Amino acid sequence: MKLYPLFADLSRRAVLVVGGGPVAERKIAALLGAQAQVTVNAPTLTPQLQRWTTEGRIAHRPDAFQESWLDRVWLVVAATSDIELNRLIATFAELRRIFVNVVDDAVLSSFHVPAVVDRSPLIIAISSGGEAPMLARLLRERLETLLDHSLGALATLAARLRKRIRVRHPDMAARRRFYESLFAGPVASLLRQGRPDAARQTAEQALASSPVASAGSVVLVGAGPGDPGLLTLRALRALNEADVILHDRLVSAEVLDLARRDAERIEVGKQAGYHHTTQDGIHALLLRHAQAGRRVVRLKGGDPFVFGRGGEELEFLREQGIPYEVVPGITAAVACAAYAGVPLTHRDHAQSVRFVTAHCQSSRDTLDWTALAQERQTLAVYMGVAELGGLRARLIEHGRAPSTPFALIENGSRPDQRVITGTLANLAERAAFHAVHSPALLILGEVAALATSLAWFGQPPLGATVHAIRTLPAGHPIASDVLAAVHRA
Ligand code: SAH
């Protein structure tokens, strides 16, 4: 190791920055964050540096750099575009034994400025010793996504309780267990929920009670439609912290791959046709694992509150007194629309959108078909592949035009996505012709006509006219069998 990492307290300490451009501005912003007393030396300043000077937050010396200024500063930053001047500053600093950073020059610098993830008072600094700054930045971005912003509040809370925790748990191992439960359990979760007072109370209770009860919890997480890029940062963090993951069959393997390696994965999937774990069975599993003190992630396709029975699971957890959180996911309708190039609303074509399911007789009988058959609205139909004939009959019976366009999206957002287009009149036949399977989502309404012209992901829609396909830009990845299928259809 050539560099010795250290965190410097610069509050109320004088620092000189030579240079008045955007790089100097960035350095000064960070120095001001650390409450340093900054003097900037440059003939001209960026507008922001000028503002800070006017506001009295920094001092400005427009005259030529003078060696004697270094006598009263703790650090100096050389951020000019003049290589000779930078070198001179570095030499003078060296003679006076003060640390110097020369921007973009690892050799002349006696201190480096790391890439930083700031969860103050917790700070993570990353350095590659100037060898691979881009890699350090990339790592910083990764950590930035992994670490919740409430971590700072957690560190502050832990600092406040630190003395009392030491007295309460003089044994090192017990103390470590207490901290672990503080950092991973309900206290951390309350802080994420923006409830600092409840978090403090819970921490106080944990400190008062003995022995440390490790309370389990459940996070209900929406996994989105399949493309792991559509996970939220919250979902990713929950997957990273999970001890157990109870997931639906619909959740893609790519998403599960992102979970903590040693987390136990249990499929509680349900698929049209057969249910291999009943809802009561899922409730029992949630309860068992949470009561054993584990952090349980209940991972569902799309969004947990859209046709996901998330509500029932929360009702059950509430009855049982198990703490929970909910992380929303991108629901199939929203994802399929985006990945098929079908805007769900459009000023010219649709003023409203309805999410409906029509997978069984009782759900069909309770729907308001007159309302569903209205013009200029979009229907996003979940779980409907098997019932397209019945759906069509009811909609036409209630006045929807047979010429209403549809887009049927199978495996939306996944590499094997297919989009079938047509009109309400030939909906069931076109789906049967292309042997559409679950999961598939139907978008019915005027907007669906745009699927042909706005498609951007995967194969072009099946049902596009041969003409539309011929006018695709050169090099578009359209296979000849797609063309053949279009001819047949
Ligand atoms: N909670 C989920 C929906 C569960 S119901 C959500 O918010 O998306 C299951 C239905 O969702 C499927 O039958 C299908 O209609 C739809 N669906 C889920 N993922 C899909 C995908 N990747 N492509 C197309 N439809 C999907």
CATH class (first level) name of the largest domain: Alpha Beta
Number of strands: 19
Largest sheet: 5 strands, parallel
**Which runs of at least 5 residues are low in confidence (pLDDT < 50)?**
none
Strand content range? 15-25%
Mean pLDDT: 90
SSE arrangement:
Elements: E1 14-18, H1 22-33, E2 37-41, H2 47-54, E3 59-61, E4 75-78, H3 83-96, E5 99-102, E6 115-119, E7 122-126, H4 133-146, H5 151-168, H6 172-184, H7 186-192, H8 196-208, E8 217-222, H9 233-241, E9 244-247, H10 253-256, E10 264-267, E11 270-271, E12 274-275, H11 279-291, E13 295-300, H12 310-320, E14 324-327, H13 332-340, E15 352-357, H14 361-366, H15 369-372, E16 377-382, H16 388-397, E17 405-410, E18 418-423, H17 427-433, E19 440-444, H18 451-454, H19 466-470, H20 480-488
Parallel strand pairs: 1-2, 1-4, 2-3, 4-5, 8-13, 8-14, 9-10, 9-13, 15-16
Antiparallel strand pairs: 6-7, 11-12, 16-19, 17-18, 17-19
Helix pairs in contact: 5-6, 5-8, 6-7, 7-8, 11-12
Bound molecules: S-adenosyl-L-homocysteine (SAH).
Domain Siroheme synthase central: 120-144
Domain Sirohaem synthase dimerisation: 150-207
EC number: 2.1.1.107, 1.3.1.76, 4.99.1.4
Q: What labels describe this entry?
A:
489 residues; alpha/beta; Rossmann fold; Cobalt-precorrin-4 Transmethylase, domain 1; 5-stranded parallel sheet; 20 helices; 19 strands; 18% strand; binds S-adenosyl-L-homocysteine; precorrin-2 dehydrogenase activity; multifunctional enzyme; uroporphyrin-III C-methyltransferase activity
